[in-house]
């Protein structure tokens, strides 16, 4: 069992929230997840959080504030800038990958098409983060 880790998923697709949560439970029930539906809401959650997440997963295309703008915002905040941000998107555009890495994302993950692939990725991340990041 892992030391409790907190992950934050910022994605406007509620089905993706459920899939991600199910994958986390399969990997380790001690993992906790908080969610937001866009970058604006995520900033509100983070501004009042008593415990900061270990990882933030961010979709690129969301209403109100997308992933790129969210990434720019948190990398300017002293209390948030060191949290690893992982872009979690359907995009595999090399331009998106380069831009988000330049802005401080530690990883760019194209959303897996299979549940088992998501579970494998999350397993590797939370158990062997130094090898994944």
Automatic annotation (TrEMBL):
Keywords: Phosphoprotein. It comes from the Bacteria. SUPFAM superfamilies: CheY-like. PROSITE patterns: RESPONSE_REGULATORY. Residues 6-126 form the Response regulatory domain. The modification 4-aspartylphosphate is found at residue 59. This is Response regulator. Gene3D superfamilies: 3.40.50.2300. InterPro entries: CheY-like_superfamily (IPR011006), Sig_transdc_resp-reg_receiver (IPR001789), TCS_response_regulator (IPR052893).
